[in-house]
């Protein structure tokens, strides 16, 4: 019976929602009271019919017992209470929005509504009365609670309204009209608002814009009255007697009124100024634009899924499936809203290839039905179809072109903005020539002039530029292009492992043979399983509108899917891998291969070859000099060779959820089908087929995570076989030719492998949307191209030494992970053994867990080092390049993930510039100073002092170079030992050469910023003390901010120790630079006191002599002193940080994410939103995705405000790096960077230092904070709709006033930076 009752209530709720959509509530304002009372009952019966009918239905179905009826009554009451609560909440919202229209009436003591308000009475449901009619039982505590809550709320509203009447005297004329109604406050007015809001909203929408000022005044008056009432309550405890008290009250009221008037005048002035300004980056109505953007984002993920599905269908030849799917989406309005013109264009493109004009005509009709306008892509496909159709009438083409003109599109737009595939461009031109025989496309090369004044001279005045050439002939570069192209076409690369090639034993040979046989069997099994599953998927999709995986399993050859799966088994670590990570990697590998195949199908490869061969003319040393940049040359060549397909193919990137679902499907297939004989290693075991992969669950913190783990038998076979080959995706290996220059957001870096300009969290699309709208990205792209054009080579002698230690037993001291043979043995014990006590068992369990964790960490580190060293060894005789991209703040990174110059000391040490330059007169000195910097010593010494120290240890330096493993081993004690050894070798070779000034050096010399984040803060605030602390001010010796803070903390400690504080006395002798360094360094990047305490705690634990029982108290005490010391030293920094934090807090509270634009024009948006859970349902398990970047969700205020200061500073340091890169390039220098550490040849260190300082001064000579303030004001405080002003005017006003109040700056002269030796050193 309970199931039947649940069903009945479900019907009740569904019918209720259906009835509520019907327009049954009518206005009864003009009826007489008798009519009203009669009709009121009727309306009430209609409005309450669904629930009453359901109650009657239930009473028919369920036997009429007392307990049953009581339960039904209680449930009905609960429904009514919930409905009333919803209406109450709705009335709160409407009250906020429409309070300018409220007409208050006199309160009646009985609480009933006034006689003259039948309208309100009729539209208010009376659930209480209904219940009393149904039964005489008393109302439940729910009803009593709701009644009491209503009374409390009405009392508060009455007090508020009386305060408004008493204090607001600004508009007596307007008030007098409604004076009768304003004396009360009421239940009736509350109900009136809640029920008439829809009518008001619809009938008087046009008048809202005329009532802004009234709304503003009401909001201000309410806030003021509320504030005053609070003040009165506080002041009532200590009343001021007599006339003096009254005078004081009057004076205070007058002063607060003056302050408010002044503030209001300021707000009005800001509004006036903002309305007059024409922003370059926002439309006048930015609030409306923000709303449109969020609505577009809401459909973005679904549109992306639809587009990728259709393109996969078309690519695999399933055109009928694609057409059925599009029509099924179009037919249903709820699904049609997710379609845009580009989705329809996908099918138009298919029919254009088949020259079926009638099908394209039908899709144009569908576009019209959907309320969409054809775009350039639509007309392009229509003209292509006409060009392919020999019988097409010229009249049809003319009509198509004239329709284009009516829509504001020109024929030139077709050829300059459309993306063409295969011979589409030729077909479109053929169609146009039928009616305009002399037409030639006028192509505009993309030479967008940069608007930033920082690089204006760089782009316009090139007479003194010396763009560097690469040290290769044109023929050599073209040969390298062919090698890279073949590697990317294969999508994978197999290389030799650097693990010692031990003699092949009989057992090793047997294991290798067994593995090869098993893999051959697995391939056959997986191939058959894939075919079977595809057949099932193809035949079971009965509903055409549903997306399924079938098209994604058809975009590659079946054997390619199998190879990807077999490869993932070989790469699986013994401890297993998270299902989510494994599935994502599998899906991404399929997408990469699919993307490369698409480019082949679109006939892009041949055109790419032609353009690249011509592009090498700019780079090669045996060609003429050019005064244009790589991106400009590439764009020019692309414009010259415009026929054929577009290189910027416009393929749709698969959504993250699609890659994950496809990968999960493949993992499921592997787990179910891959098996092995249990006796394959040990014949003594019973033979049975066992899976080689297990799907299990483990816990990460408190979350349960799906895991895929290999069977120990498989792990043992792989370890015993000791295979000597490693297989990687092609993008993991550095490029063998110079990268394709970034010329747009979607094109650059690799030849065929897809690469993103901006690396983001999986699934985040808001960054890409912003970048595509941006028109001034040229300097950002050119700086990435400059970094990517640096050629690298391997330091072979150093690499051989590292590999020898790697293959011996590793070295913790030198950061070379030991082999797994050195891992701790995992203890085995029987949990059921009664000889062990409970505490012994618990202890042994902990030991097992610790040993397993240690083994897992060692394996991870060992494999990471193996990959890096094997890649380095594979390209030891090659010249190679690192293509670059950036994160959302503009910080740059090399694309190859394992081996690059951002890596550890080991990977940096084996990298050298491919091009060598003579040391020159000061180069050898710079090498010696760099060596001392790498040791970590002499940080407080001048450059002369460091050079003198280097000369004093030359014997150790030469010994290290000659006998690195058998000599004094001086280099091993350096902070960066391997780079120090490489530098020792370079110095030894230089001093032993006939003329050190002519010695050709390939070694990169580093210049590192002195606490670079604080440098930017000090420059922003023109803070003299802060600038001196971080070496912006010229000094004889380098200022060490970390030592300065440590010294100040020590002074505080001495003071507290004298006053008897115990923890201050315990810390005597333990406060050092090392203890505070990490906290000082990271406080500028937003570290909290909690995080700072953990950092200091870690440092204190490293000090053996420090009493461990005092670590907690000491870390709490020290973090407070560090923050206080920084606040005193960097006052300007703190003000700016607080202003940025509070701005971000108010912006995110208003419902928007924080955006800004760097001085070079790069748009940045913080992708921090409230986390939502999305469940991916698969046959294996449901994967719970925690998505924190969804732009449909509200911003995460805490993350937004905490991240804004560090992210803003990161965007500035990346801008400084990009400016330095561009101007070093124009000066002919080799330049690369690791964020705020700049690298160049020893010969050009002085030139780079000069450029670095000039660009820092140029950057901070811009009014950065004022421009940020202007941008944020125009972004978030202009074009505010009337409803928004009424609802949140106070927040809007506070935000406006805060953004306009830019922090004051000090007296520091920025030009002094140019003279500062230790700014970067």
UniProtKB/TrEMBL annotation:
<comment type="subunit">
    <text>Homodimer. Component of the mitochondrial transcription initiation complex, composed at least of TFB2M, TFAM and POLRMT. In this complex TFAM recruits POLRMT to the promoter whereas TFB2M induces structural changes in POLRMT to enable promoter opening and trapping of the DNA non-template strand. Upon metabolic stress, forms a complex composed of FOXO3, SIRT3 and mitochondrial RNA polymerase POLRMT; the complex is recruited to mtDNA in a SIRT3-dependent manner. Also forms a complex composed of FOXO3, SIRT3, TFAM and POLRMT.</text>
</comment>
<keyword id="KW-0240">DNA-directed RNA polymerase</keyword>
<dbReference type="Pfam" id="PF14700">
    <property type="entry name" value="RPOL_N"/>
</dbReference>
<dbReference type="Pfam" id="PF00940">
    <property type="entry name" value="RNA_pol"/>
</dbReference>
<keyword id="KW-0808">Transferase</keyword>
<keyword id="KW-0496">Mitochondrion</keyword>
<keyword id="KW-0548">Nucleotidyltransferase</keyword>
<dbReference type="InterPro" id="IPR046950">
    <property type="entry name" value="DNA-dir_Rpol_C_phage-type"/>
</dbReference>
<keyword id="KW-0809">Transit peptide</keyword>
<dbReference type="GO" id="GO:0003899">
    <property type="term" value="F:DNA-directed RNA polymerase activity"/>
</dbReference>
<dbReference type="GO" id="GO:0001018">
    <property type="term" value="F:mitochondrial promoter sequence-specific DNA binding"/>
</dbReference>
<dbReference type="InterPro" id="IPR011990">
    <property type="entry name" value="TPR-like_helical_dom_sf"/>
</dbReference>
<dbReference type="InterPro" id="IPR037159">
    <property type="entry name" value="RNA_POL_N_sf"/>
</dbReference>
<comment type="similarity">
    <text>Belongs to the phage and mitochondrial RNA polymerase family.</text>
</comment>
<feature type="compositionally biased region" description="Basic and acidic residues">
    <location>
        <begin position="167"/>
        <end position="178"/>
    </location>
</feature>
<feature type="compositionally biased region" description="Basic and acidic residues">
    <location>
        <begin position="117"/>
        <end position="126"/>
    </location>
</feature>
<dbReference type="InterPro" id="IPR002092">
    <property type="entry name" value="DNA-dir_Rpol_phage-type"/>
</dbReference>
<dbReference type="GO" id="GO:0034245">
    <property type="term" value="C:mitochondrial DNA-directed RNA polymerase complex"/>
</dbReference>
<feature type="region of interest" description="Disordered">
    <location>
        <begin position="110"/>
        <end position="205"/>
    </location>
</feature>
<comment type="function">
    <text>DNA-dependent RNA polymerase catalyzes the transcription of mitochondrial DNA into RNA using the four ribonucleoside triphosphates as substrates. Component of the mitochondrial transcription initiation complex, composed at least of TFB2M, TFAM and POLRMT that is required for basal transcription of mitochondrial DNA. In this complex, TFAM recruits POLRMT to a specific promoter whereas TFB2M induces structural changes in POLRMT to enable promoter opening and trapping of the DNA non-template strand. Has DNA primase activity.</text>
</comment>
<keyword id="KW-0804">Transcription</keyword>
<feature type="region of interest" description="Disordered">
    <location>
        <begin position="223"/>
        <end position="269"/>
    </location>
</feature>
<protein>
    <recommendedName>
        <fullName>DNA-directed RNA polymerase</fullName>
        <ecNumber>2.7.7.6</ecNumber>
    </recommendedName>
</protein>
<feature type="compositionally biased region" description="Polar residues">
    <location>
        <begin position="179"/>
        <end position="195"/>
    </location>
</feature>
<feature type="compositionally biased region" description="Acidic residues">
    <location>
        <begin position="259"/>
        <end position="268"/>
    </location>
</feature>
<feature type="compositionally biased region" description="Polar residues">
    <location>
        <begin position="155"/>
        <end position="166"/>
    </location>
</feature>
<dbReference type="InterPro" id="IPR043502">
    <property type="entry name" value="DNA/RNA_pol_sf"/>
</dbReference>
<dbReference type="GO" id="GO:0006390">
    <property type="term" value="P:mitochondrial transcription"/>
</dbReference>
<comment type="function">
    <text>DNA-dependent RNA polymerase catalyzes the transcription of DNA into RNA using the four ribonucleoside triphosphates as substrates.</text>
</comment>
<dbReference type="InterPro" id="IPR029262">
    <property type="entry name" value="RPOL_N"/>
</dbReference>
<feature type="domain" description="DNA-directed RNA polymerase N-terminal">
    <location>
        <begin position="482"/>
        <end position="789"/>
    </location>
</feature>
């Amino acid at each position: 019976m309970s199931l039947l009752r649940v069903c009945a209530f479900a019907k009740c709720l569904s019918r209720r929602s259906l009835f509520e959509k019907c327009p049954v509530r009518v206005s009864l304002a003009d009826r007489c009271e008798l009519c009203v009372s009669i009709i009121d009952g009727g309306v009430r019966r209609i409005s309450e019919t669904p629930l009453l009918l359901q109650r009657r239905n239930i009473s028919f179905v369920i036997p009429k017992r007392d307990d049953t009826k009581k339960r039904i009554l209680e449930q009905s009451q609960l429904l009514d209470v919930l409905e009333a609560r919803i209406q109450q909440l709705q009335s709160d919202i409407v009250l906020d929005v429409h309070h300018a229209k409220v007409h208050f009436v006199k309160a009646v003591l009985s609480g009933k509504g006034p006689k003259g308000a039948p309208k309100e009475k009729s539209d208010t449901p009376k659930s209480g009365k209904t219940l009393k009619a149904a039964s005489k039982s008393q109302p439940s505590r729910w009803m009593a609670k709701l009644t009491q809550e209503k009374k409390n709320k009405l009392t508060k509203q009455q007090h508020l309204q009386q305060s408004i009447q008493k204090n607001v005297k600004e508009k007596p004329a307007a008030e007098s009209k409604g004076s009768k109604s304003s004396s009360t406050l009421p239940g009736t007015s509350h109900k009136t608002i809640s029920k008439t809001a829809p009518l008001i909203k619809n009938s008087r929408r046009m008048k809202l814009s005329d009532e802004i000022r009234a709304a503003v005044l009401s909001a201000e008056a309410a806030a003021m009255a509320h504030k005053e009432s609070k003040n009165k309550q506080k002041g009532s405890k200590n009343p001021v007697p007599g006339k003096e008290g009254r005078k004081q009250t009057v004076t205070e009221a007058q002063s607060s009124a003056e302050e408010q008037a002044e503030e209001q005048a300021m707000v009005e002035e800001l509004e006036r100024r903002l309305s007059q300004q024409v922003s370059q980056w926002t439309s006048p109505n930015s609030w409306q634009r923000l709303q449109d953007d969020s609505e577009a984002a809401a459909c973005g993920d679904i549109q992306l899924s639809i587009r990728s599905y259709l393109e996969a269908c078309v690519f695999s030849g399933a055109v009928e499936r694609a057409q059925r799917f599009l029509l099924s989406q179009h037919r249903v309005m709820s699904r049609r809203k997710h379609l845009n013109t580009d989705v329809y264009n996908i099918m138009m493109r298919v029919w254009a290839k088949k020259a079926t004009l009638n099908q394209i005509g039908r899709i144009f009709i569908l576009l019209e039905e959907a309320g969409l306008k054809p775009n350039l892509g639509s007309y392009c496909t229509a003209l292509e179809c006409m060009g392919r159709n020999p019988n097409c009438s010229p009249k049809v083409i003319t009509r198509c072109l004239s329709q284009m003109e009516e829509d504001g599109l020109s024929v030139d737009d077709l050829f300059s903005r459309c993306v063409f595939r295969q011979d589409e461009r030729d077909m479109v031109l053929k169609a146009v020539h039928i009616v305009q025989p002399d037409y030639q496309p006028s192509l505009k090369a993309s030479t967008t002039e940069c608007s930033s004044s920082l690089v204006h001279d760089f782009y316009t005045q090139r007479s003194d530029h010396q763009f560097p050439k690469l040290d290769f002939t044109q023929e050599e570069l073209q040969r390298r292009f062919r090698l890279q192209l073949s590697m990317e076409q294969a999508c994978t690369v197999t290389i030799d492992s650097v693990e010692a090639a031990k003699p092949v034993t009989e057992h090793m040979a047997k294991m290798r043979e067994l593995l090869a046989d098993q893999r051959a069997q697995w391939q056959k099994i997986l191939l058959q399983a894939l075919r079977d599953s595809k057949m099932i998927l193809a035949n079971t999709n009965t509903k055409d509108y549903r997306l399924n995986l079938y098209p994604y399993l058809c975009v590659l050859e079946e054997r390619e899917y199998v190879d990807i799966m077999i490869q993932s088994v070989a790469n699986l670590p013994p401890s297993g891998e998270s299902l989510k990570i494994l599935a994502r990697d599998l899906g991404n590998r399929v997408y990469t291969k699919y993307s490369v195949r698409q480019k082949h199908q679109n006939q892009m490869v041949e055109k790419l070859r032609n353009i690249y061969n011509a592009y090498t003319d700019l780079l090669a040393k045996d060609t003429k000099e050019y005064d244009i940049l790589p991106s400009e040359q590439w764009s020019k060549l692309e414009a010259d060779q415009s026929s054929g397909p577009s290189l910027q193919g416009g393929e749709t990137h698969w959504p993250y959820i699609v890659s994950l679902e496809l990968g999960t499907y493949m993992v499921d297939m592997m787990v179910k089908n891959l098996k092995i004989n249990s006796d394959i290693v040990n014949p003594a075991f019973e033979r049975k087929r066992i899976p080689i992969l297990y799907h299990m669950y483990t816990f990460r913190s408190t979350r349960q995570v799906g895991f895929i783990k290999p069977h120990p038998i498989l792990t043992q076979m792989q370890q015993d076989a000791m295979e000597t080959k490693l297989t990687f995706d092609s993008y993991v290996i550095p490029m063998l030719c110079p990268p394709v220059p970034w010329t747009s957001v979607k094109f650059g870096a690799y030849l065929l492998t897809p690469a993103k300009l901006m690396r983001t969290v999986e699934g985040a699309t808001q960054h890409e949307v912003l970048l595509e709208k941006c028109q001034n990205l040229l300097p950002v792209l050119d700086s990435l191209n400059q970094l990517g054009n640096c050629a690298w080579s391997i330091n072979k002698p150093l690499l051989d030494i590292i590999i020898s230690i790697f293959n011996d037993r590793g070295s913790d001291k030198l950061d070379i992970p030991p082999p797994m043979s050195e891992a701790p043995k995992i203890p085995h014990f029987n949990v059921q053994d009664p000889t062990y006590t409970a505490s012994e068992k618990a202890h042994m369990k902990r030991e097992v867990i610790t040993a397993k964790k240690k083994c897992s960490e060692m394996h991870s580190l060992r494999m990471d080092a193996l990959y890096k060293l094997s890649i380095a060894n594979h390209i030891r005789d090659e010249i190679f390049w690192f293509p670059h991209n950036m994160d959302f703040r503009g910080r740059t990174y090399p694309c190859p993930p394992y081996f690059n110059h951002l890596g550890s000391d080991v990977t940096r040490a084996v990298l050298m510039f491919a091009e060598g330059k003579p040391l020159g007169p000061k180069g050898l000195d710079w090498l010696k100073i760099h060596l001392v910097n790498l040791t970590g010593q002499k940080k407080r010494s001048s450059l002369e002092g460091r050079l003198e120290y280097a000369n004093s240890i030359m014997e150790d330096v030469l010994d290290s170079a000659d006998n690195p493993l058998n000599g004094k081993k001086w280099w091993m004690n350096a902070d960066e030992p391997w780079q120090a050894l490489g530098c020792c070798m370079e110095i030894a070779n230089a001093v032993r050469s006939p003329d050190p000034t002519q010695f050709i050096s390939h070694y990169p010399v580093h210049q590192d910023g002195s606490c670079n984040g604080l440098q930017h803060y000090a420059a922003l605030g023109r803070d003299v003390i802060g600038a001196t602390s971080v070496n912006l001010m010229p000094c004889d010796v380098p200022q060490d901010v970390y030592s300065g803070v440590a010294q100040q903390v020590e002074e505080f400690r001495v003071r507290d120790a004298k006053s008897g504080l115990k923890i201050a006395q315990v810390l005597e002798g333990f406060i050092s630079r090392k203890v505070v360094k990490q906290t000082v360094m990271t406080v500028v990047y937003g570290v909290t006191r909690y995080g700072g305490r953990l950092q200091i705690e870690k440092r204190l634990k490293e000090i053996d002599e420090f009493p461990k029982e005092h670590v907690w108290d000491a870390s709490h005490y020290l973090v407070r002193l560090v923050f206080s010391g920084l606040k005193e030293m960097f006052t300007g920094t703190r003000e700016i940080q607080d202003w940025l934090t509070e701005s971000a807090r108010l912006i995110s509270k208003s419902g928007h994410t924080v955006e800004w634009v760097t001085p070079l024009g790069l748009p940045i948006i913080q992708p921090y939103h409230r986390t939502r859970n999305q469940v991916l349902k698969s046959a294996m398990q449901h994967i719970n995705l925690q998505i924190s970047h969804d732009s449909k969700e509200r911003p995460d205020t805490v993350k937004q405000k905490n991240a804004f200061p560090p992210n803003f500073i990161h965007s500035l340091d990346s801008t400084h790096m990009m400016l330095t890169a561009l101007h070093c390039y124009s000066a002919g220098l080799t330049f690369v960077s690791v964020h705020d550490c700049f690298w160049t040849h020893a010969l050009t260190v002085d030139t780079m230092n000069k450029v670095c300082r000039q660009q820092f001064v140029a950057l901070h000579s811009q009014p950065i904070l004022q421009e940020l303030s202007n941008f944020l004001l125009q972004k978030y405080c202009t074009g505010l709709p009337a409803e928004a002003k009424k609802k949140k005017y106070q927040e809007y006003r506070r935000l406006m006033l805060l953004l306009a109040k830019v922090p004051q700056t000090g007296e520091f002269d920025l030009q002094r930076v140019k003279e500062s030796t230790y700014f970067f050193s």
